[in-house]
Structure formats: C-alpha cells, structure tokens
Amino acid sequence: MRNSSWGFLLMFLSAFLLDLDAFELRKGQKTERISGSAGDVLEDDPVGRLKVFVYELPSKYNKKILQKDPRCLNHMFAAEIYMHRFLLSSPVRTLNPEEADWFYTPVYTTCDLTPNGLPLPFKSPRMMRSAIQLISSNWPYWNRTEGADHFFIVPHDFGACFHYQEEKAIERGILPLLQRATLVQTFGQRNHVCLKDGSITVPPYAPPQKMQSHLIPPSIPRSIFVYFRGLGARAAVWENFKDNPLFDISTEHPTTYYEDMQRAVFCLCPLGWAPWSPRLVEAVIFGCIPVIIADDIVLPFADAIPWEDIGVYVDEKDVPNLDTILTSIPTEVILRKQRLLANPSMKQAMLFPHPAQPGDAFHQILNGLARKLPHDKSVYLRKGEKVLNWTAGPLADLKPW
Amino acid sequence: MKFQVLQQSHANRGRSNSCRGASPLDSSADGSGGTTKSAAAIFWIMLHCLCCLISLVLGFRFSRLVFFLLFSSSSTNNLYTSTLTAPFAADIAETLSFTTSLRNFSPPLKTDAVTSSSNSRVVVGRHGIRIRSWPHPNPEEVMKAHRIMQTVQREQRVQYGIKNPRTLIVVTPTYVRTFQALHLTGLMHTLTNLPYEVVWIVVEAGGATNETAALLANSKLQIKHIGYGKKMPIFWDARHKLESQMRLQALRVVREEKLDGIVMFADDSNMHSLELFDEIQKVQWIGALSVGILAYSSHSDEDPFEAPKNLNELDEKKSPLPIQGPACNSSDQLIGWHTFNSIAYRQKSANYIGDMAIVLPRKLEWCGFVMNSRLVWEESEFRPEWIKDLDMVATGNGEIENPLSFLKDSSMVEPLGSCGKKVMLWWLRAEARADSKFPAGWRIEPQLEVTVAAKRTPWPDAPPELPSKVILENGQKNATKTQTQRSRRSSRGKRKHERLSARISRERTEK
C-alpha cells in the first residue's frame, strides 16, 4: 500500500517535470516543431532505450554479395546495407545476446541487380529462408520466440512479398517465416497483404551528399507553382495539366532537377510502379510541399511525423481537379507547411547519412523499435511450441540457397 | 526489363488461360443438369477455345476488351486502355487475385457485383486516367496561384533576406549634357527597383536646372536636388576634382539634415547590379567594393586590353583585369588595394570630355566605397575615433580623391563582396563632346507656323522640291535674302513648313 502511494507520487512528479521540459522547448522559433501523434518523438535518442544484437552471418549473405555488385550502395534500396553498418558501430549494439531486446539479421536480399540496376527478387525468398535456418540452428533466440523479437530490413518494392509486380507480390504474400518478425520496409499501403501490422515504414535511400551539393540559397524566391518530373503512371497528371502554365511537368529529368525543386512551392509525388517514391524524400529535403497522390499510402515514420500537416493528400480520382485543390489551400496553411518542412529534424529524419547523425533515419528506426518495447509476454513460446510453418510457400522457395 | 516481364506475364496468362478456364467450366457444368448441360458445355468450350486461340495470336487477352466494350458504363471521361485486366464474364472468381484495381483486398472467391464494377475500369495505376472536359487553366485559379507565390516569396524575404534594412543615401553628381538623360534614367530605374528606402541626393554642377528636375520628376523616389555653383569644366582632370567637391557638398547636406543610413556614391554613368545593394547593407562603418573599370576606347583598331602586353614581364604578372578594390589575404583580411594601372594607357588617355580616347579613372574611385552616414555627423560621439571630421577633410585645398581621406587608419575599411572577389558595379565614362547639341528635354517641338510675307518666298509657283535642288536653282534667281535665310535653317522640315505656309499666305493675299 505504501509502495504504491510512493510510486504514484513519483509518477506525478515525473509527469510534472516532463511537462516543464516540453514547455521550455516551445520558445519562439521560425521553424515549427514537429509534434507527431506520439509527441515530439523525432528528437528522441534511442541510446539507452533498447539493445540490439547483430547476428554474425557468413559473408556470403552480406559482404560477398556487395563485393559482387557495389552498385547496391547507391540505389534506392541501399538502406539495408547502411543499416547494417550503422548497427555494427552504434552504442545500441550489444555483444551479449541475453540482454538484447531486438535481434538483427544482416542479409542483403535486394542486392541481385540486373545490368540496368534493377533488383531481381527471385532469389530473395530463398536467401532469407536460408539465413533464418542458419540463425535458428546456431542460436536459440529464434526458436524462443519464432522471430517475434527479430527485425529484418526488406526495402524492396513490396517488402517481404519479394516481388516487384503487385499481383505476384499479393499472390505470394509475406514470406511465411517472417510472419512474427518486425519488418522495416519502404513499402506502405493500408489494407495490403504486403504490409504487416507493426511494420516500420522507412523512406527509400537517397544519397545525402548528392542532394547537399545541389542546395541553393534559401532566399531565392520560389517561382514555380507545381513541379514534377517523371514517367509512367503519372500520365493522368500529364494529360490534364500539360498546357497549364502553373504546372511545370515533364518526363525528362533535367540536370537542374534538384535546384528546380527548391524553386517550387508544390512537388507532386504520385504513385509509381510501387506506391512509394524517392520524390517524397527529395521534396522534404528541398522544402517543397509534397502533394501525395496515392490512395491509402502509409508514409515513412507515420507515427512520428504528422504528414497531414506537412503534405497535401489528393485522392487519385481527384487528379483532374488538382489545380483547384491546390489553389484553394489558404496561404496561412501553406506557410505553416513550409515552416514545418524547414525544420531541420524533419529533413534529417528522411536521410541515411554516413556517418550517422542524431535524428536521422537510422535513429528513427531505432526509436520505432524502442516504442514497441517491452515485448509482450505472449511472444515467448513455451518449450516445443511451434507456430511457423516451415514448408509453407511456393515450392521454388524451399530450395536451398 | 519490366516491359518484357509484363509481356511474359501476359503470355503466361494466355497459356494458363485454357487450364484455368476448365475449372469453372467444370463447376458450371456440374451445376446445370441433363442434356442442356452438354449443349451449353460444348458451346462454352468452343467459344473458350476460340478466344484462347485469338488471344495467343494477338498476344493479349482480347476477351476482356470485348467485355469492356460491351459492358462499360457511359462515362464522359476518356479512358486510356493500356493493360487489359478486366475479367471475362465466365471467370470472375479467379481474376480477383489478378486485378490491380482492388480497393479493399478481401480473401478471394467473393463474387460481388461491387468488385466487378470496379474491375471494369481499365487501369494504369489503380484508376483510369481521367481527363476533365475542359483541361485549360481557370484564370481565377491562376490568379490565386500567383497570390500564393507572392505570399510565399514575401515570407522568404522576411525569413532569409536582410533583416532591418537601412536607408540608402545615394550621392550622384550630374550636370546637363547630351548623355545626361541616358545615364540618369538608367540609375533612376536601378534605384526604383530596390526594395529599400532610398534618399537620392543629386548634386548638379552649374546650379539646379529645370532640365534635370524634369528628368527626376519621373521617379517616385525621395530626391534632394541640390545645385552647385560652378559649371562643369571640359577637362577630365578638372571634372574629377569638381565631382569630388560636389560629393563633399552632398555629405554636408547629410550632416546638416542628420540623415541616417548607408551612403553610397553612384555616379550617373556607372552600372550597378541589384546584388550590390543587398551586399552593402552589411557595412558597419566604411566598406570597400570591387569596381570593374570599363575603360573603353572609341578607336576600334586599338584594343585597350591589349596594352598590358607591351609592358615588361614584371607588370605582366599583375592581373590584367581592370578592377579597383580591396585586396585580401587568405583569411579574408584587408591587406591592400588593387588600383587601376593607368601607366599603360597614359599616352592614349582622354584629356577633355568627348575626346576620342580612353577615359581613365583615378586610382581608387569614390564609387567603390560605402559609408555609414553617422561618420559625417557633427557630433563626434557617433563615430569611431579613427574617422576625421568632415569639416577638417573638406576644407583642405587638395583634392579628395576617395573616402580613404576620411580615415586616420585605412586598415579599418571592411571589404565587401566576398572580400572583393565579386564585382557588382562597373565604372564607365561615356560622354559626347561638350558642345554637342540635343533637343531640350528630349522633346522635338513642332514649329508653329512661321508666317512669312509672300514677297520673301522664293518661288511662288514651284512645287515642293528637295532642298539640294532648291539650292542649285537658287543661283539663278535673285532672292538673296531668302537664300541666307535658308542656309541658316538646318532642318528640312522647317523649310517645307515655310514653303507651305508661304503658299497659304500667298493664296490668302491673292484672294
């Protein structure tokens, strides 16, 4: 009885102190603070809140693949490689698996590239399966929870469905062995087979140095109303607005692409082959308000970043009325969005810089993982209990890698 | 690569078409009964095989196209057909897992009408490409968009531009001459374009005239038009001296009226870029800028920039660029000055205004300096101790070549424009001969009728001819008075007028 009352008092006190902290930070700033649905979590420091154990896999799962094709370091899915490197030297890493909260398996499933640089997902399920077999037989931690306290980085188009075509991806579904693990992926769409509950959506990799080198002084006035460069499924935008002088849209990428985005007020981010796009990252870095034309999309770090306040959501069916929608946004709202975008923590959260910096995407991933702690007691299986079906999935996937 | 895969998948679908077609066929076959079963079954099988063959030949599932054309709703929108994914009537169940137009993905085998309606749209992405009926921009929306951009840009200026800009006090010596309108109008327009407060002190040699006042009246700037008693001399040396004195007079005005701001010396023939005015806002007390010297020569065969090549090697190592301004070391500190190397041009330089030769600047021109107006205020507490008082400087008999004379310690000058690396203004002297004429106020006033008595007109019956012819024929006639009159006049127009008016007056007298 006494303990509980003391506990209550302590809780009260700590809540009071936390409130004070939050108030102090709210002093006048030109940029607006990002208050996500979970509070000001972009600036959280994950160090001390979780411990990650990194499995030592043979180099055929990671280093050798990278050696075969170093282009993997620069494409949109490079996050899996950089995350591995970051974790190896991060203070959250622990060498003692007994005290680890999360387990990371460094397997580069997205590094099998065509001559053009597009990743082929055909071997990825087998690679993943082989890696999981390895960790489940050499360490007891997989079998303890059947992967519920493990996380995997699957940055490809449809995440752990391991296919670039939506129909095929849906047909395959998420790899059965990953049913209980936490997936860190770029793909995010509500009510979709390939987005599991509890996944962490991250932005695609965009080379930070390349974007930094194209920065122009912020005093240069923004004189383009809507800007877009791209192809394919964006034909709806093209057909409707190619003659509209307010819309600077084209299929060709000029060399001044980054500079132009910094001179634009709105940047379109319509869905492409897969419903995510590096345009979102570019728009945020360059301070251009993203116009998201992808129904039901789940944007990166959606629980930490209030995307509705920052970007403009337009339903795909409303694309013909895009000009009406954009011009009827009140100017105070537009200025507020620009202030939010100018916040450096917002820009930092979209990037994967190397070496890592506080508040960047690596830290946001760790924050996301930390928010899922502590693990529910039910994830720990009883001795002999098995949930996963090791023989599920297409026959081709069961072949050893 | 993706296109190939797409084709491959289509081919796959085409091939597996027949196999999958069989299963619902079986179920439907089981459902119905008896003899009708076989007829219907055979019909369907044959139709299906036909469709398969055609699909194989054409390379896509044309049956869906048929279905679409038959059953698509009459929409006003144009639909763009690329990949065909609408289902065939008989196999809705299996296609649920293939179409990309799923909104709510539910486990397969739901044969709702809902799904069929959404599946009837052919898709790129999830919806068809809808084009509105009038794809041209709405003018009201264009205006709204422009207003949005204006607001955004204003906010940008507030956030990233100069905070608390100071008033600009521009000092310009001028005088009435042919090129005045050209130079002064250019400077006026530059100053009008600035987002800053401007006080323009125009000092005119030879007293304030209406001509200059008329030019200045066109602007909306705040102008102080001051006359300076002496007339502008013809020789360049003397002109430079007088201009310095005029500038000092302007500084006296700043002192008397206690104008607060940044003083800059803009000669009317110079060219200023707008970035210059943003840069000089940074000055604290006295700053120096790099000035590009456009020392031109009207002799086309002589290239003034070639002159340095004739010098010996020592001089060649110096930069041949004609720029006056501060010189800095690698840590951006002022260590010296780049001055104009006039040795190469001395033989060819102009002596008097309108001379067909290069007009040379002084070592360091006034225009390359900007000062805080408080430097010239009377009370000494406003200025640092390394500044001499204006009265002490101005009363000296020697010429004040540049504001460095104000300083006891010339190392306190602040270099501007990334330490002089950026040239944002250009010095130029371009003038016509001192005795060149130009229409007053640049208006060509039409002459009112000059009524000349009939007896003075030379040829009452001759038609209007070219003046040259008239002069020739004149030798035959006796009208000497009119001859002299004619030679005095310089414009053909006046002559015509005179002839016409003469004819009119003659006609009047005849009547």
UniProtKB/TrEMBL annotation, chain A:
<comment type="similarity">
    <text>Belongs to the glycosyltransferase 47 family.</text>
</comment>
<dbReference type="GO" id="GO:0080116">
    <property type="term" value="F:glucuronoxylan glucuronosyltransferase activity"/>
</dbReference>
<dbReference type="InterPro" id="IPR004263">
    <property type="entry name" value="Exostosin"/>
</dbReference>
<protein>
    <submittedName>
        <fullName>Exostosin-like protein</fullName>
    </submittedName>
</protein>
<keyword id="KW-0812">Transmembrane</keyword>
<dbReference type="GO" id="GO:0047517">
    <property type="term" value="F:1,4-beta-D-xylan synthase activity"/>
</dbReference>
<keyword id="KW-0333">Golgi apparatus</keyword>
<dbReference type="Pfam" id="PF03016">
    <property type="entry name" value="Exostosin_GT47"/>
</dbReference>
<dbReference type="GO" id="GO:0009834">
    <property type="term" value="P:plant-type secondary cell wall biogenesis"/>
</dbReference>
<keyword id="KW-0808">Transferase</keyword>
<feature type="domain" description="Exostosin GT47">
    <location>
        <begin position="49"/>
        <end position="329"/>
    </location>
</feature>
<dbReference type="GO" id="GO:0010417">
    <property type="term" value="P:glucuronoxylan biosynthetic process"/>
</dbReference>
<dbReference type="GO" id="GO:0000139">
    <property type="term" value="C:Golgi membrane"/>
</dbReference>
<keyword id="KW-0732">Signal</keyword>
<keyword id="KW-0735">Signal-anchor</keyword>
<dbReference type="InterPro" id="IPR040911">
    <property type="entry name" value="Exostosin_GT47"/>
</dbReference>
<feature type="signal peptide">
    <location>
        <begin position="1"/>
        <end position="22"/>
    </location>
</feature>
<keyword id="KW-0328">Glycosyltransferase</keyword>
